[in-house]
Write a structure and sequence with these properties.
Residues 70-232 form the Flavin reductase like domain. Its cofactor is FMN. By secondary structure, this protein is of the alpha+beta class. Helix content is 21%, strand content 26%. The protein binds flavin mononucleotide.
């Protein structure tokens, strides 16, 4: 669980009278959920190749950006897509260094993506990307993606062909979603802050749209995997449910 921030309640009391801060958070969550729905319905009337199915898009349903911390806080290995699908400059790489920085207002995620990666230049240029959460079924290909560079390919998008990855147009960013039944989720992000890039290669991202595979929800068909830092990985397994003890953080539970 992240550090406590200004405005968070000291103690969760009876729910009949919510604190102003809690009420505000509840309203924000509701707003995000409504926005997610509105965004999808708006897309559905568009004639572009952007997302248009109000229920499922390439097998994904919309997921509130204010809840993406649940996808990132477990620390899964992620794919990062950059560039532009429209002009075939899209790239994809693997990361293990990332963190949730803020739940909401706005949600923020930090990723470490270094200047030695071809993806760095694309992120710097377009200031947007997609974070895809792969299921362990993709572990080998995800590691292979992280052991080669677009700089070594004939085309910027060479890795997509090489690894037979499905690139789907995103709703709000130029970089594509990673399609396929073994992808747990996709989070469309824009760069919020670059202050720590030169010193730490740390990009602060703001999720603006998110998609969840309903057949691969974490713990309900989907299993994330986590890098131990040496080429070995641990896979989601047993769930330890301590919700009852999370007395100060009830607003983050269903
Ligand atoms: C398991 C794993 C984790 C990785 N984590 C990171 C990371 O957190 N940050 C980073 O910059 N590169 C990381 N890499 C390396 C990049 O994925 C690798 O440099 C990639 O090939 C860059 O592709 P590009 O040059 O096409 O952008 C990781 C690789 C693997 C296999």
């Amino acid at each position: 669980m992240g550090p406590k921030r200004k405005g968070q309640p000291e103690q969760q009391g009876e729910t009949s009278r919510a604190s102003p801060a809690k009420q505000r958070r509840a309203n924000n969550t509701k707003k995000a959920e409504t926005e997610a729905e509105t965004e999808t319905s708006a897309s559905s009337s568009s004639s572009s190749s952007k997302p248009r199915d109000s229920k499922l898009y390439h097998g994904f349903e919309t997921y509130p950006p204010s809840r993406v911390f649940r996808l990132i806080e477990p620390g899964p290995v992620l794919l990062v897509t950059t560039g532009s699908l429209a002009d075939s400059t899209h790239n994809v790489m693997t990361i293990g260094f990332h963190m949730v920085m803020q739940h909401e207002s706005p949600p923020l995620i930090g990723i470490c993506l270094g200047p030695w990666d071809a993806s760095f230049a694309a992120l710097k240029k377009n200031r947007e990307c997609v974070l895809a959460v792969p299921d362990v079924a993709m572990a080998e290909v995800v590691v292979d993606i992280g052991n080669c560079s677009a700089d070594e390919e004939d085309e910027p998008s060479g890795k997509w062909q090489r690894f037979s990855l499905e690139a789907c147009p995103a709703a709000k960013v130029k970089a594509p979603l990673v399609g396929g039944s073994d992808v747990i989720a996709n989070i469309e992000c824009v760069v919020e802050d670059t202050k720590m890039v030169s010193k730490y290669s740390m990009w602060v991202l703001k999720p603006v749209k998110a998609w969840l595979n309903p057949d691969k929800k974490p713990g309900e068909g989907g299993r994330m995997f986590h890098h131990r830092g040496d080429g070995t990985f641990v896979i989601d397994g047993e769930v330890l449910d301590l919700k009852d003890r999370m007395v100060k953080w009830r607003e983050y539970q269903d």
